[in-house]
Write a structure and sequence with these properties.
Elements (H helix, E strand, L loop, with lengths): L17 E14 L4 E2 L3 E2 L3 E19 L6 E6 L2 E2 L4 H11 L9 E9 L10 H19 L4 H15 L11 E4 L13 E3 L12 E5 L10 H6 L7 H21 L2 H20 L10 H17 L4 E4 L5 E5 L4 H12 L8 E5 L5 E2 L1
Parallel strand pairs: 5-7
Antiparallel strand pairs: 1-4, 1-14, 2-3, 4-7, 4-8, 5-6, 8-9, 10-12, 10-13, 11-12
Helix pairs in contact: 2-3, 5-6
This protein binds (3R)-3-hydroxy-3-methyl-5-(phosphonooxy)pentanoic acid (PMV).
């Protein structure tokens, strides 16, 4: 598919009013997206686990207005949020060619998250996908579309808001970015991963240690830009292709040892790219490294398949099979909560995608 396939055919419609609510999850990448080209096109393919409990819920209502410009009000947790407007205005500007009808409506958007506000957990993935789903729902009121096209269109729009958001539509795993070994994979939208998946991953756990709830020192937008002209960029992008090829059989057989090595190598490579950009920056905190060392020590001593990954921040995602949950939660309580800000962590697990409420 090409971007023009997402421009709807001309339609005639009587603009009415209505309302819809969608709930969309966050996701955690195992193979990371870091670096992009013009038009929110990823520099390399990525693969993520969809989460289950870290959600954004967005209610969007619409009423007819005279065409000419996009008009919207945005409320976050019940309060009007002026600081979110520039990002939303940019989003609406980007999606207008693909949803020209939005100019015929005034939109009221109410959004809230299930995870603690400013926990350092990025809400852009769940937030942008929930909004994209509401907008695609509105489009479906005007022109028919198949379920498959609905998901692709929502993912395509979400990508224009925040790249990784395009992987928050379905689950339990999503791929985004063209990859030789993933049939139908596209740079334009996220695709549900339909290759063989071992049962061990179907209820995989993700406990998110909230190491640093402060605002990020470097936005991911700025971080992606620094991959242009990065001395290691070309090798990193081909490594991501290799990692996806290597991950496929591990996901099929449930080889956790190799899965954990690949996942941790990806996390540390992401941060190595940050530490070797110009300008360089570090998002990990001393507590992030303490936790990583404790996890390695615990794994060495007990043989328990506990691994970590990181996103663009200091928080640590601990991934492990559901069967090991009790012992791992005991270990987290005894050894790791001391490194969490206000001893906070979130117990999440793999999820199955967004839902209309
Ligand atoms: O979607 P963005 O622009 O916030 O970038 C997200 C990048 C990482 O979270 C670091 C990796 C990923 O693939 O999600």
């Amino acid at each position: 598919m090409i971007a023009n396939d997402f421009i709807p055919a001309p339609y005639n419609f009587e603009a009415g009013s209505g309302e819809v609510t969608w709930q969309a999850p966050s996701n955690i990448a195992i193979v990371k997206y870091w670096g992009k080209k013009e038009g929110q096109i990823p520099a390399n393919p990525s693969l993520s686990f969809t989460l289950d409990k870290s959600l954004t819920e967005t209610r969007m209502s619409w009423e007819p207005k005279k065409a000419g410009g996009v008009s919207f009000d945005f409320f976050f947790e019940g309060k009007e949020k002026a600081s979110f407007r520039p990002k939303l205005e940019q989003f609406f500007d980007r999606i207008r060619p693909y949803q020209p009808f939005i100019e015929s409506f005034h939109l009221t958007i109410n959004s809230s998250n299930t995870f603690p506000h400013s926990s350092g957990i990025a809400s852009s993935a769940s937030g942008m996908s929930a909004l994209a789903l509401c907008l695609t729902h509105l489009e479906r009121q005007i022109s028919e579309m198949t379920e498959e096209h609905f998901n692709r269109k929502a993912s395509f729009l979400a990508r224009l808001g925040s790249g990784s958001a395009c992987r928050s539509i379905e689950g339990p795993l999503m791929s985004w970015g063209e990859h030789r070994d993933i049939k139908g994979s596209s740079d334009l939208f996220g695709l549900r991963y339909t290759e063989p998946l071992h049962d061990i991953f179907k209820d995989y756990q993700d406990t998110i240690l909230l190491i640093d709830k402060g605002s990020k020192k470097m936005s991911s937008t700025a971080g992606h830009q620094l991959m242009h002209g990065h001395p290691f960029a070309a090798e990193r992008f081909s490594q991501a292709h290799r990692h996806i090829a290597e991950l496929k059989p591990l996901l099929a057989t449930g080889d956790l040892e190799a899965f954990i090595f690949l996942m941790e190598r990806e996390a540390l490579t992401l941060h190595a790219m940050m530490m070797t950009s110009d300008p360089y920056f570090i998002l990990m905190q001393p507590a992030t490294l303490e936790v990583i060392n404790k996890v390695w020590e615990y794994r060495r001593e007990t043989g328990t398949p506990l691994g970590f990954t990181l996103d663009a921040g200091a928080n640590v995602h601990l991934l492990y099979p559901a069967d090991n949950k009790d012992e791992i939660l005991k270990f987290i309580e005894a050894e790791l909560v001391a490194y969490c800000e206000n001893r906070q962590y979130i117990c999440d697990r793999i999820g199955f995608g967004a839902k209309k409420l």
